[in-house]
């Protein structure tokens, strides 16, 4: 082979190999769907845990002590829910959220002047209710990035438990009736009961007739001891018709291994390694469980109600589920709930359109891009093979004077 021919062959071969390496990479860039940034997992937050209840068998009640630690950064849950962007579109101003749990301390850091709590509801020995109120409507105090989902909403604190955090159907029913009578726009039930109760069923139905969005924990917060072989069951009032049943999830979107099994979950929200305050002092705690997820869903409902005051309670609930991030259990996305256009504004029209998932998350453009990328790869690969074939065969044919090889040893 003459030197110019060999040089040309090397050039063609090099170009072909480079194209073979670059074409698939280019196609992958075009075809890959958008990737959500990885969520922080809460590591490095050296904070005490917030219990959902105290030991019911203890001879004396020792309330959860004040935390002497403060969070040093925004936790993964607020990043996952995109609260910094959400608060540019709504903060829940003018909406009252009734929180049924262990009570709320009206003077807790970040909640000043926005909590109404009468009688026993103003004494939160467990601390869980105050912790949840901070997730719903806390300002974050001197740590604004730890604000709640609806920092301008009002909290109506109601007791659904005894002093140690043990719930009962009678207390939850009375709290629901009081919330309905007070005209709360959103009612968050942070406890879950194992048995259905007729009076509780009627109290939920009445709250819904009066226009409240009712959000409830899909399961009780699991105890610290083992929960092996617990069968799946429905808990109440989350199982009542029209109630948004909310479960807790980890940063990867999965339910915790310790989560109690159940069915009929409408939404999943962050429920592990979540930071908030308590009723004593200005320190922070880490909380977990379905009650934490329920607080976040209630805050999202408050922001939507403030942004869309003419929407019915059913339309608000449907909006929260229709705009949720698609997964085995839809994952709460409050920013999408406030900003997504589902249909004509107002009432049931928005709720009907909310059932159409294509309106919310249309992936057809990404699918078409992937199809085009696939065609590009196939055609490009064929072209590369042709170039490589030419670089190998043509110089040999030229060396033989363009005569076909006869395959004999003498040749």
TrEMBL record:
Signal peptide: 1-31
Pfam families documented for this protein: Peptidase_S8
Residue intervals passing through the bilayer: 373-394
Segments for region (Disordered): 32-78
Limits of the Peptidase S8/S53 domain: 92-330
Family of this protein: Belongs to the peptidase S8 family.
Protein name per UniProt: Subtilase family protein
Species for this entry: Streptomyces capillispiralis
């Amino acid at each position: 082979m003459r030197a110019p021919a060999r040089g040309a062959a090397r050039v063609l071969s090099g170009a072909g190999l480079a194209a073979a390496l670059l074409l698939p990479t280019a196609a992958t860039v075009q075809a890959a769907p958008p990737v959500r940034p990885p969520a922080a997992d809460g590591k490095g937050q050296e904070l005490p845990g917030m219990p959902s209840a105290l030991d019911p068998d203890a001879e004396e009640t020792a309330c959860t002590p004040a935390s002497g630690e403060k969070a040093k950064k925004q936790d993964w849950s607020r990043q996952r829910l995109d609260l910094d962007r959400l608060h540019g579109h709504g903060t829940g101003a003018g909406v009252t959220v009734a929180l049924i749990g262990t009570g709320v301390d009206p003077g807790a850091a970040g909640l000043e002047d926005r909590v109404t709590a009468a009688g026993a509801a103003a004494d939160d020995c467990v601390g869980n209710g105050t912790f949840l109120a901070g997730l719903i409507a806390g300002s974050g105090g001197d740590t604004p990035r730890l604000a709640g989902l609806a920092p301008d909403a009002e909290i109506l604190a109601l007791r659904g438990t005894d002093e140690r955090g043990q719930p009962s159907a009678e207390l939850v029913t009375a709290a629901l009736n009081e919330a309905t009578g007070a005209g709360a726009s959103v009612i968050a039930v942070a406890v879950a009961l194992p048995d259905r109760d007729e009076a509780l069923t009627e109290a939920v139905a009445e709250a819904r007739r009066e226009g409240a969005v009712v959000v409830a924990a899909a399961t009780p917060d699991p105890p610290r001891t083992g929960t092996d072989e617990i069968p799946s069951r429905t808990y109440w009032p989350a199982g009542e018709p029209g109630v948004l049943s909310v479960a807790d999830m980890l940063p990867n979107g999965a339910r915790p291994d310790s989560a109690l099994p159940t069915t009929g979950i409408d939404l999943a929200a962050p429920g592990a390694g979540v930071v908030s305050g308590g009723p004593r002092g200005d320190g922070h705690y880490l909380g977990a469980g379905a009650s934490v997820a329920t607080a976040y869903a209630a805050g999202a409902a408050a922001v939507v109600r403030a942004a869309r005051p003419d929407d019915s309670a059913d339309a608000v609930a449907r909006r929260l589920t229709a705009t949720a991030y698609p997964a085995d259990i839809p994952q709460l996305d409050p920013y999408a709930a406030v900003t997504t256009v589902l249909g004509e504004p107002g009432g049931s029209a928005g709720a009907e359109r909310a059932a159409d998932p294509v309106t919310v998350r249309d992936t057809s453009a990404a699918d078409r891009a992937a199809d085009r990328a696939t065609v590009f790869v196939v055609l490009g690969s064929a072209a590369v093979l042709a170039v490589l074939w030419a670089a190998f065969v043509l110089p040999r044919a030229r060396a033989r004077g363009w005569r076909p090889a006869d395959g004999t040893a003498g040749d």
